[in-house]
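Exercise 7.
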Amino acid sequence: MKLNFTKMHGAGNDYVYVDCFQYPMLDHPSDVAVLVSDRHKGIGGDGLILIAPSDVADARMEMYNADGSRAEMCGNGIRCVAKYVFDHKIKNDSHLKIETDNGVLELELTTVDDKVTHVKVDLGEPILNGTKIPTTFDMNPVVDQMIMAGGREFLATCVSMGNPHCVVYVDQLSDELVHTYGPMLENDSHFPNRVNIEFIEIVSDELVKQRTWERGSGETQACGTGAGAVCVAGVLSGRTKRNVNIQLLGGDLELEWRESDNHVYKKGPAVEVFNGVFELK
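Solution. The predicted structure, written as tokens, is:
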């Protein structure tokens, strides 16, 4: 079977996208996600995202991690979905609604020469109740709670942006830190559905550096919902302001946790890399 696909990334967080407006829905998307995500024998990416028709929005996003597990949302992926919908003339509107497993989200598009360059996403209200994130911490919110991993103590602030995140602050980011403790924390017993880990180095109360170990994918160049969780966690823990710029390995994102409506807003780039056909075996 031949798979027609588009490779896209948002701040380096790259996925293989399939246009299910034009092509049939995949029978076994979890298996396909594992095949195409392989960076040596496949297309290469952090996972698979299907762009499909929706009864309640302009399009629906169905997301699978690199290990085939289903994910509720992807803040960088949804920006690319919006770019694809606009650039490929599925819906010619600078304001789009995209259906996800975390509900319908609204997006505002920035275009140059009739192509989307940046997208602002309303990520909605953060979930702060520990049992709903979910975690085993029965408190609301979960701020600076101690977790042990590999003999090291971490202070965890936990937030769900439709998918679960654990934000930990460190003095200095490093490969060893992320790759050693990321998988341990992802699978820690405090998180019944596993969790995405954001390692954060504070530069100022308006600027932080972020590296993310994503549930089911390992370290990624960026994580959009994770950046939203970092923005919220910074305010809850008194470390940063409600408006914060976040530097990730793949680029920068602008975040705001707006006091007026309690919603988190994120703006960042969306890039189409190439199109192709992949032989599924």
